[in-house]
Specification:
The protein has 369 residues and is an alpha+beta fold. It is built from 10 helices and 16 strands. It has a domain at 81-261 and 274-313: 3-Layer(aba) Sandwich (Beta-lactamase). Helix content is 33%, strand content 21%. The strands form 4 sheets. Strands 3, 4, 5, 11, 12, 13, 14, 15 and 16 form a 9-stranded antiparallel beta sheet that branches. A 3-stranded antiparallel beta sheet has the order 6-10-7.
């Protein structure tokens, strides 16, 4: 039986913990160590809010929320938030599902669907999800960043986003010969998938992941809205500390369009990490190291990082900072999200916290970057 315990540990800091009453003494002791460490890290990083969940297999070790969503509004683990680059993990899984169903060919040239795109006759969906296609990352374009910063509520079409990458007519490298992270390649792949299937990305996510997994608190952002309850986020990117929760996420293209909450992410992580939605062949391709990746223990797979045995992601955008990790060897899941306080040093702290928690739950498999 599970029960919720609300503990006031500091002024305006609330913990929400779900505890399994049958937890072993060893796990209970570990939980106590984790609670103490998380509370210390919350104060050390000075974040406004911190939500975290840890599971071993199906066993819930803890789910915790500290700090505030807004002034006098405590953060809680059921609040919806923008998951940023963790969307890419869903994306890689979706692509492999579509390939399993013969709805798209991973090795087909994308000129089949986008014949006028730069280098389309040399690029495949399999390259795009691995970031080995060579397209320049549009978020490194100064004009683009200036526009997003000036107009945070502005919507961007895929066509606009891709144009910032290819307008110069050059690639970073010949497709398939190297790897470099590029938000552009996820956005191109989103367009390819829609043309190949005749369905919108949000429809495909619903049909093949959200509904089958009963992820009721996860969805695709078609605009700036988020369902209630909402974990508010804050940013100093524009020179003042302001609420960034409803800034338009459209500038992320298909690399960061999803929202979720802690409970749904904990549920998804294990299903993804075990390849439960895929054939064994497609799962192996999902997690495989691309040609040219030099380090067998640290590489970008298909929308996520392989780091010393962990499948991980570390997004940070529009005021949200996240960390997602699944360790298949020990069947461990860790999810952390934080929001920035008025202290600018509190930005992008989730991955730091995540790495400290990894040291406790898996000291032999610490994160190696």
């Amino acid at each position: 039986m599970k029960k919720n315990i609300h503990v006031l540990i500091a002024a305006l800091s609330v913990i929400l913990i779900s505890i399994n009453s049958n937890i072993s003494g060893q796990t209970s002791a570990e939980r106590d160590v984790l609670l103490k460490k998380i509370s210390e890290l919350k104060e050390e990083t000075k974040v406004k809010s911190l939500t975290a969940g840890i599971k071993k297999g199906d066993e819930e070790i803890l789910t915790i929320a500290l700090g505030e969503s807004m002034t006098s509004v405590p953060a809680s683990a059921d609040m919806h938030l923008r998951i940023g680059g963790v969307s890419e993990i869903f994306f890689g899984t979706l692509l492999m599902i579509l390939a399993d169903k013969s709805l798209i060919g991973l090795d087909d040239k994308i000129s089949k669907w986008m014949p006028d795109l730069l280098a389309a006759d040399k690029v495949t969906p399999g390259m795009l999800i691995k970031n080995t296609a060579g397209y320049k990352d549009y978020v490194l374009n100064k004009d683009f960043i200036d526009l997003v910063t000036k107009e945070p509520f502005r919507n961007f079409s895929r066509e606009e986003i891709i144009a910032y990458s290819v307008s110069g007519g050059e690639l970073n490298f010949t497709p398939g010969t190297d790897q470099k992270y590029s938000h552009t390649e996820f956005t191109i792949l989103g367009e390819v998938i829609e043309r190949a299937t005749g369905k919108k990305m949000h429809e495909l996510y619903e049909e093949y992941i959200f509904l089958p997994m009963n992820l009721r608190n996860t969805g695709y952002c078609l605009n700036s809205e988020l369902p209630s309850p909402v974990l508010h986020a804050y940013s100093s990117d524009r020179g003042i500390y302001e609420d960034a929760t409803f800034w338009n996420p459209g500038w992320t293209g298909d690399s960061g369009p999803l929202f979720s909450n802690l409970y749904d992410l904990l549920k998804f992580a294990r299903v993804f990490g075990k390849g439960s939605l895929l054939t064994s062949e497609s799962f192996e391709r999902l997690i495989s190291r691309p040609d040219g990746a030099g380090n067998p223990d640290l590489y970008f797979a298909s929308g996520f990082i392989f780091a010393n045995g962990w499948y991980a992601q570390n997004p940070s955008f529009n005021g949200y900072s996240g960390a997602f990790g699944y360790l298949p060897e020990d069947d461990i899941t860790i999810i952390v999200y934080t929001t920035q306080s008025e202290d600018p040093g509190s930005d992008a702290q989730a991955f730091k916290i995540f790495k400290e928690l990894v040291k406790i739950v898996s000291p032999d498999k610490v994160i190696n970057f």
